[in-house]
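Exercise 3.2. Students should predict the tertiary structure of the chain below and write it as structure tokens, then compare their answer with the key that follows.

Predict this chain's 3D structure.
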Amino acid sequence: MKYILVICLLIINMFSSNFDNACKSCHLNIYTEYYGSLHSMSAPKDDAIHKAVWDNHPNKAKNNYTCKECHTPNEAEKSISCVDCHKISSIKEDKIHNHNIRTVKEKYFYSADTTQKGKIKEFKKDDSFMGLFSKNSGSPYHTIDYSNQDFYNGKVCMGCHSHNQNKQNIDLCRVYFDGITLQSNCITCHMPQINGSSTSIRITKTHAFHGFAGVNNAPQMLSKYLDIKILQTKNGFVVSLHNGSPHPFLLQPLRVSMLNIKINSKKLPSIIFARVLGDEKNKPVMPWYATKILSNTILKADEHKSFSFDEKLKSGDEIEVVFGFFAVNPKVKDKLELQNNKTANKFTVFKTEILKVR
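Answer key:
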């Protein structure tokens, strides 16, 4: 009886406010990846850049954190947890931004697994040969619902990542695209299957990457969606870019990407890709004050762009093309007081191509 009580107390503790530690015991690979992702740092207290943005937001004085529905969906205003995503039962679409509808069923989670699709797995223990042998199925800690289509087609991500408008009805970001399929969606790109078991209860060869591949933490997983070509011409060379993804290359309005080109040791002027939001005086402003889009040079979905350079080339010359980005536009860093922030100052290389002139 004493041991049963101890086990019950442990289980109760596992499903308390510190739920994610409970997930770790069975989903170590997923847990490790998740806590290296931006999702695990979604709250202002966990991300210096987010905090800097919030400290400059007009709602800061009102103590009205309007981003909390996605960034801190739990009552404790902590960063997104495992439960926050796996409890999503459906998505309610809205003009300003979508909303996640979560189940109220206790210890009931949704997930995707093509081998289990359509099933609802409750813990079950089958005994045979008078109890000498037993076979378990499901998890002893929670029910797993594999029948939610949104977890297969990527729509589960659209409660937060679809779009967001400010009070002036200006899109601050918009990622939602037509033509979502089971073969091509948010999950197939940002959560690809990688080696390692998804759980210690049912060993699998692979699992979905829960670090959520992005330009910040796993650009190598996404680099295949950006094609860079260098073509030598009679008068110089041409650099062509193609965004093979079904949404704009960078979504957050404060980010800026750059194309850096170098011929041997000679650096050419950088080409900037940015979306600049402004006011009625055509001056750049922070997103919450924007009334118009002043310029938009970011790579759109399936867009091709080419740039010609009249440079005299000789045999043996090396042309290096680097496409990368800053998490915060350098022109905004001072306003946000991020001059000394390593992440804001870091130029992250997304892809590099090199051509040696014959």
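Discussion points: DSSP finds eleven helices and 21 strands in the chain. Confidence is low (pLDDT under 50) at residues 1-17.
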